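Q: What would this chain look like folded?
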Amino acid sequence: MQIKEYELAVSIAEKLLKLQVDHEVAYLAAFAERKLNHLDKALTYAIQVRSGDSSPNVMNLNLLAEIYHAMGQRDKAVSTLDEILTIDPLNTKARRLREEIHD
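A: My prediction, written as structure tokens:
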């Protein structure tokens, strides 16, 4: 999201999600809510994406780990990062956050 109008993005995403559950829209809503520091809402959307995906969405898992970390839920953040690194051992975002948590 280049224009950084996260509130507008959330508003549009919420309207779309009322019409039909779409995991890409839910991911965008989670991302925008995270940027607005609305962690509870961001977590709800990210979990919705995770539960609806038949295969792991690494971008969403990274976002979920970031949200858990921001909420002080270290164990859940680390567990999610471990899941990412099992799927993609070279994932720099997950590796960087994992190092930050362990420092």
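The mean pLDDT is 89.
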